[in-house]
Amino acid sequence: MPIITLTTDFGYKDHFVGAIKGTIYKELGDPKIVDISHAISPFNIQECAYILKNSYKNFPDGSIHIVGIDSELSPENQHIAAFVDNHYFIMANNGVIGLITSEIVPEKVVEIQLPNSVDGPFPVLDVFVKTACHIARGGKLEVIGRDFKNLKDLRDVKPRLSADGNTLSGSVIYIDNYGNIVTNIEKNDFLLYGKGRPFTVSVRNKRIRQIHRKYGEIVDYNQEREKRKTPGELLALFNTAGYLEIAIYKSDLNTVGGASTLLGLDYRDTIAIDFE
Question: Which neighbouring-strand residues pair with 181?
Answer without folding.
Answer: 175, 246
